[in-house]
Amino acid sequence: MKLSTFRYLWSQACANIRRSLSPSAAAVIVIALIVLGSMLAVIRNTQSVTRDLVMSFQIVAYMAVDSSARDTEDAASSISGIPGVVGVEISTKEAELERLISRFPSYRQVISSLRTNPLADAIVVDLDSPARAADVASVVQRIDGVDEVVYGTEAAERLAACAKGLGVLSLFGTVFLVLALSLVVGSVVGLTIEYREPEIEVASLVGASHWFIRWPFILEAFLLGVLAWLVGAAVVTVMYIPAVRSFQEMMPFVSFADSPRDIAVICVQLLAISLMSSEAATIVALERALASIRKR
Amino acid sequence: MIRTIHLCKKYGNDVHALDDVNLQIRQGEFVFLMGKSGAGKSTLLGILSGRIKPTSGKAFVHGRNISRAASGTIARLRRQMGIVVQDLRLLERWTVYENIAFAMRVLERTEEQIAKRVPEVLESVGLLGREGAYPGELSGGERQRVAIARAIVNNPMTILADEPVGNLDLATAESIITTLESINSRGATVLVATHNEEIVRRRNHRVIYLERGRLRIDTGPRGLWGDSV
């Protein structure tokens, strides 16, 4: 394609954005992008919170009462080599006793009157995923000197299922919204193509190539996607920061996705969705219109 | 050159728009295609321009069988043709200049070439000075001229015009046919579908007469009055 032709097609696309039904299509995309952006923000924050909970999941291995400090260190060393273990910390029997006393201060005198410390050393194990808890625990249980392994089985399973379910839900939600957006945009773009059918017919009559006919619409869809994204992303960004801040104030112990990187990721996702849906909707509507024109 | 071999077109089961039409038109001929409404004139022009697929038979334009050509080939063939359709298909939102320039833009002509050629064509069809007007502001004859100007702007080898003088007064119709004749004199093949007998009788061009889809009369290249064209 010659540069002059591309310039002409580009100018046509810009002019059509102003004069056809494209502003209506842009408005539809903007609204859809705001809804989609809000959903992406919710998904991203839920993922962030779940990730935090998952990352903080631990199991505790209690050593036998008669095991020595050396036995505990050896066991900790063995545990740290197990796949899925991201951190190991030894809590000595003395530390465990202090913890017990601080937890039950009214029994301080009773506990202090004991001649020997009845508690055992404990090894706190951090995992990369709660889904691994059962497997890791069974391996830890077989290590010499380990008496008992404790972890919240139910909580671990729920957390793992929750994280997995959320991932699937997000994927389906996003796919559904993108399809719905494409459908709505397709209908509006279909109207703009219908409005310009005479141009397509004349272009075809004078021997225009496939691409000469398609390019103005493809460029128009690109412009439409970018313009709608600019407005949609701006609205989502402006709404996002105060919303996350107010949630952060309500729940300071939870870490929300509030970094500039998080906002940038949402905006990039919105741009991709906006361009893909406007281009896909345009191409489908255009091919339908061309097929119907060819039959006449 | 245009050639059809056993060309048939049926609409539905019973309507024979064209029935076994065989004809050959040499490059540079001026041919009137005549017949009553429904005789098959528009169908024949539609097949020759690649807008209608025949039921059977072949239609060759510039050596290619357009009736079986892919859409890309049809587009390339149309760039060597000037097509004037019955309803003209002028773009009402564009000026006369833009309507004509559009046919050149499709062929990726530069702005300089367009700026030079469009006024030339407007002058040849007698519309110089009307380039800024919109089709809605033009008379019937002027609209026909814009359609002809769009068809000839790329110097096509063949012009297919479907009723270019329909519903026009005799004087206007004469001037439009004269315009087409001047294009023909430069070597283009011109095929004009019309039922204006007065216009046809005043000239000595080849006449092909269709009746209910069948070719009834073909005067041949010697023309209506038998003289050499």
Give an overview in words.
The complex is a heterodimer of chains A (296) and B (229). With 296 residues, chain A is α+β, with helices and mostly antiparallel strands. Chain A folds into two domains: 9-53 and 159-295, no CATH class; 57-154, Alpha-Beta Plaits (2-Layer Sandwich), CATH 3.30.70.3040. Chain A is built from ten helices and four strands, in the order H-H-E-H-E-H-H-E-H-E-H-H-H-H. Chain A has a four-stranded antiparallel sheet. The longest helix of chain A has 43 residues, at 153-195. The radius of gyration of chain A is 31 Å and the shape is elongated. The two termini of chain A are 29 Å apart. The relative contact order of chain A is 0.17. In chain B, 45% of the residues are buried. The two termini of chain B are 16 Å apart. In chain B, strand 9 (206-211) and strand 10 form a beta hairpin. Chain B is globular, with a radius of gyration of 17 Å. Chain B has a domain at 89-155. At the A-B interface, helix 1 and helix 8 of A face helix 2 and helix 3 of B.
In short:
The complex is a heterodimer of chains A (296) and B (229). With 296 residues, chain A is α+β, with helices and mostly antiparallel strands.
